[in-house]
Design brief:
The protein is of the alpha/beta class. It has one domain: Alpha-Beta Barrel (TIM Barrel), CATH 3.20.20. It is built from 9 helices and 11 strands. Strands 1-10-9-8-7-6-5-4-3-2-11 form an 11-stranded mixed β-barrel. α1 packs parallel to α2. 41% of the residues are buried.
Length: 275
């Protein structure tokens, strides 16, 4: 997954992030009036926001993050059973995914029945078992390592909405062809310190994550099909400019259980005029 303390800017054509309700969490939202004092550039729109947080995070801050329109919460968990506070956060979030772990039994199914709109997020090794509690929910799967034919076949059968793919080295054309066959979107975490493909070119449906420093260094060819990772303290005005030059962008904040980081995200959203 993404290293803590990073913001991930997802710039891709079409439906990049999975949906929980009928309205797509990855689709462009209608523009909103910025709060007083915000410097949202003319013609830009607040960008969809995704927050990766740990269930250990302060409950009130979690609720504040998840309660915002256009925010999808991705909640990591510590054990197999879901906490009451976790279920409450999921129930209060407009759109959310929760990480689940085996055993996928009747007790977990009963807990999930209380949050019917929450999507499920599992590791690849547990994917074949999650059907016992999945129902009609959307599914996200983390896939570390090489994407081989057998793995691709299992993913095709499971039909996840999104696959987090983290190969140890740049994938070859064969592995990319397997990724192209998946029904959901594939987020490809490009190995660190490795050169990215020319023009960020990848098969349709595969989205590349690369570094981002500012809008001024944003390659136009990459802006339509890449994920840009930037430091958490990226100035709000850079995010505002991004909203203007790349209105299909989506923003992801990694906050984990860090209270100050989560509060910083809320403040930055306010400063950018996105709340």
């Amino acid at each position: 997954m993404i290293a803590a303390g990073l913001v991930v800017l997802i710039l891709a054509q079409g439906d990049v992030w999975p949906v929980v309700r009928e309205s797509d969490a990855g689709s462009e939202r209608p523009g909103r009036t910025a709060p007083a004092g915000a410097l949202t550039p003319p013609g830009s729109h607040p960008l969809p926001v995704h927050v990766f947080a740990d269930e250990e995070l302060d409950v009130d801050v979690l609720r504040a993050l998840g309660h915002q329109a256009g925010v999808t919460v991705w909640l990591t968990t510590r054990g197999a059973a879901l906490r009451e506070s976790t279920l409450d956060t999921l129930a209060r979030s407009a759109q959310a995914y929760v990480q689940v772990r085996p055993p996928f039994n009747a007790a977990l199914r009963a807990q999930l029945a209380r949050v019917p709109s929450a999507g499920l997020w599992v590791n690849f090794e547990n994917m074949s078992q999650v059907g016992a509690v999945l129902g009609n929910r959307p599914l996200a799967v983390s896939v570390p390592g090489v994407l081989e034919p057998a793995s691709a076949e299992r993913l095709i059968a499971a039909r996840p909405r999104v696959v987090f793919w983290s190969p140890p080295s740049p994938p070859d054309l064969l592995a990319l062809s397997f990724a192209r066959q998946l029904t959901g979107k594939v987020w490809l975490a490009w190995p660190r310190d490795m050169p990215v493909p020319a023009a960020c070119s990848l098969p349709r449906g595969v989205v590349l994550r690369v570094g981002f420093s500012s809008v001024d260094t944003l390659a136009p060819s990459c802006a339509q099909q890449s994920i840009f990772a930037v430091a958490l303290l990226t100035p709000a005005n850079e995010l505002q400019k991004l909203a203007q030059v790349a209105p299909a962008a989506q923003v992801v904040f990694e906050v984990g259980a860090d209270l100050e980081r989560a509060r910083s995200v809320l403040e930055r959203l306010d400063a950018a005029g996105w709340r």
